[in-house]
Amino acid sequence: MKYEEKITTTEHGTPIIKGTNIWVNTILRLLEEGKTFDEIIKVHPELSASDISACLEYAVELVIISDFKSSTKKINEGFKKRHALADRIRAL
Fold it and tell me: In whole angstroms, what is the distance from residue 48 CA to residue 27 CA?
């Protein structure tokens, strides 16, 4: 399952579980508190285990994207430094 099948966004860009007004962030915080899937479903019976799994997949995707952007930025900064050094050497 792809999280896109279960997650959408509000008009303001807040990720929610499709068919509900439940924020993905709410589910992630409950999981962070140590709540089990069953405990979350008991409080939010409109959810399924696959809805909760989709929230976790969404969070992982965000971490991967963030790490990629950070790595790309570092690589680009390294290239800029090498180009600047090469320009100084050429100017000698």
Answer: 12
